[in-house]
Design goal:
The chain is α+β, with helices and mostly antiparallel strands. Helix content is about 30%, strand content about 5%. It is elongated and about 50 Å long.
Length: about 80
């Protein structure tokens, strides 16, 4: 894994679908929307929560902070963060 201290916005798919449905029913043509939870969560915290659920299984996390090569995806290609 890369940097565990990065924060991301995680949204429940049901909330996203509800937002899409609301947008389809409204007069919003030509407007831009950012559908998100509005709460940033560090990847380190997500991993800690997952590890708490798997107490009977050892989980090893290896951090690799080396820059990605050409096979990596540029940040601007996945949301522009």
């Amino acid at each position: 894994m890369g940097n565990l201290d990065v924060a991301r916005d995680f949204s429940d798919v049901r909330d996203v679908v509800g937002a899409y449905a609301a947008l389809l029913d409204g007069p919003v043509q030509g407007k831009l929307f950012n559908i998100c939870s509005g709460k940033a969560v560090a990847l380190r915290d997500v991993i800690a929560a997952m590890q708490a659920l798997t107490v009977s299984m050892a989980v090893e996390i290896r951090v690799n902070l080396a820059p990605r090569g050409s096979e990596g995806v540029a940040p601007s290609a996945i949301g522009g963060y």
